Amino acid sequence: MIAVVDEVYSESSTYNLTGELGSANVDVDFVSKIEPLKEDEKSVNTLTVPTELREALLGQPAPSDDELALGRFPPEFVPHLKCYILVDAAKITNAVQLIEASDLPYRCLFTGDAFDELADVAPWLIELQDGNAFARQLFLSGDAQWCLWGKAPLIFFRSRGTLKDVWQHLRKFTNIKMQNGISVYLRFWDAIAFRALVLSGGDASTAFMSSKSVFFHSMGLCDATHGLTVYMPKNRSKNCPAIKMDDKLEQMLFKAQHAKRRYELYKYLTDLAPKRFRALGPENASAFVSHALKIAEKRDITSYNDIAYIGVVMQCLGSWFDQDMSLAPLSRIMENTERLDPAYKVDRLHKEASRFFEMCHGDNQSILFKRMGEMLRALEDVDLQSLNKRYCYHLLQNTYPERLKYMGNGGFDALWSQSEETARHFDYDQEWHVAILFSFGVLLGVGFYVDPLYPWVAEHLNDTSLTPDDRLLAMSAYGRERAHKIQRLNAANVM
Known about the structure:
Structural class: alpha+beta
Radius of gyration: 29 Å
Shape: elongated
Strand content: 5-15%
Low-confidence stretches: 2-22
Largest sheet: 7 strands, antiparallel
Mean pLDDT: 84
């Protein structure tokens, strides 16, 4: 039987990949909606940052008791609370040139050979100053190249320390030791890693927010989609722990990266087939994306483009195409026994899937729905007791010969056996039951009854208001009407 994926994707929680309830180390505050500066508004000449961000980025709160207790300045002389922005040069066109011409204090977090080789894609620390033109550009929305709002999340730090103080502290985290002693880059200037580092609650998190050389009043990030998140360190440690990867951070980074990949795949497939994915709803779309990632993980496929292609094949051939014995040339490629290089495996999958589509559909995907309507109509037009394996073979010969040719006699027998197993799962014991399930397996894929692409199948098969026989007949009738509707929409160029 087909195993069901029960992970659920929640779009509202995807960006908050590491959770936003805070930890023992931080309090969290939000501003959910930010109105960016507009290029055609007069206010752009007077405002440096959007109104919703002014207090968080440029406000001047009194120093806390914790800050005064450090004795870095006398109570009667409180230095200005500065705002330092961390800019990822990789995400902004000509970022280095813009920063160097900004008239703002700045330093790149990379030095030496790393700076020479990677300055154009490195993180740059900039002191944000009210009234500066480049500072306004960071919050300016528009199509022009100098409108930078939405290009990348902006990570910020509020401190009374100097640029050098903050730079020296952050520099310690560009390389971090794994628990096995190996040093790796920790891209904390990426929103995912930054959130994980702040919220993980382990030694690395404490070291990041507590420093003997610099006191952080707050830190956070803001972007065009998710608004502003402010983290306020608490329970500051007087003895900062060693800077190294700990279990909490490692686990949170892994979960965060996995969630990010799920979200990116979800967005890609939604953009590819927006109406289809919108109709699925978030729970079924989530299950589909999770299953695509599981298929890839099982075959050691890690490239985003390769995983996305697996999702495309699933949309066309069913989510369990890799277990469909009527698609033996495709499913064999996906078997681990072949021990192919993952990239080569996907390349072979692409070639074989292209051969299948050319052979069975040509350039017209709507042929599938035409065949679906014809097959299901033929099933309704005969006496149920006449539906058997032999009838289904002739039915394919007459209505979908291309598919029968692709699967061959061996594939036909294998799919019939899988359909018999499905019938037993649902306590069906007559051959006409198997025949209907077989037909759906041909049309929608072997795992159609748990496929998140076809939630209406599960609704019919689990409808307790009908008898078991009537559930199958209602499912068949609904499938036929659905196929005809899609054909009409395709003909009218609606889809």
